[in-house]
What does this fold into?
Amino acid sequence: MKNLYIDYNTGGFLTPSISLNASKGECDIRGESSTYNAKEFYRPVLNWVRAYIQEINQPLHFRFCLTYLDTPSTEIIITLLNLLKTYENNGGQIKITWYYAREFVGIAEPMEDFIGSLNLTIQFVPFVLI
It folds into this structure.
């Protein structure tokens, strides 16, 4: 299975950099996400995760470091978290780390509420913007 890398700002408007490493099970989504068409931008990510679950079926560690999420991007991230939760419910091992800027705590708070409803374990790690 191939790795997936999407450079920031390649999908139009503000898009995060995405690095999904199949051999290590390491996944990073970093930056700002306010894309013209979030469904199209994140489609390769969701397809990659589905393929990883079917083909590799090994532990996954997702790291999110997003300083901004618009509503369509938030909906896709929720879809991704639901996919990871289903994987976990079916015996898959996942670890999720969510880095958030202390200055933008408003991004983490809604996700904490939603994640609580999914019963997902996520480590929230604050950082300071420089």
